[in-house]
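Posted in: Protein Modeling Q&A

I'm a second-year student putting together a small comparison for a lab meeting, and my supervisor asked me to include a predicted structure for Secreted protein. I've never done this before, so apologies if this is the wrong subforum. The sequence is pasted below exactly as I got it from our records. If anyone can share the structure token output, I'd also love a short note on what stands out.
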Amino acid sequence: MKKIVSLLLTFLAVLSSNQADENETLKFESQEEFCKFLPFKMALPENFVGVQIYDWLILGEENTLRDLIPQNEGPGRAPNPKTSYIRLKISQNSGQKEIFEGNDDDILHALSCDGKIRTFYFGSYPVKVVESGSEEGKPFLMGWIGLNCGGPIILFNYIVPENQPSYKKEIEIWNRFLNETVERSKEEMDAIYNAHPEC
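Accepted answer (user: helix_wrangler)
Welcome! Here is the predicted structure, written out as tokens:
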């Protein structure tokens, strides 16, 4: 499983050499191409494309992602988007044991959140999500995906627009992502590793 982390780090290094800043044109990739190094296939809307901004891998509608660079003043800031998007990165603050074996109340306290926590799997990869809010109020939606290597995990946030009359559509996208994302087959992962022997 450590190969997966090496693969992701290689992927991030390649993206970092091509990522955009405020003075460049955003470099979009198809969702399939952008996510090919991940050990699972994410169930996201077909019109979502990918781009890297700082250390975040971001997937959303192109017209929304084009606005992120001008609004984004730093890697920790999540600007108000036109439409929802999902962002992922390798967590610098938490490991798999801490998140998946730790106390859920401690997680909610650290996030200053009164939401609920769910734990499930994308195939063999554990997933823990924090959900707060509703269709009528802006939801707070985030989670972690364990990589089964004893260390690094993927952190993800689902960012939604402010002041919407309803968040039904956004919650449907979130639930589809959680319920329909699947692990890549061994054959698919072997093909990726064979194409990148440096990992």
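A couple of things worth pointing out for your meeting: Helices lie at 2-18, 31-34, 62-65, 68-71, 96-101, 104-110, 168-180, 186-195. The chain has one domain: 2-195.
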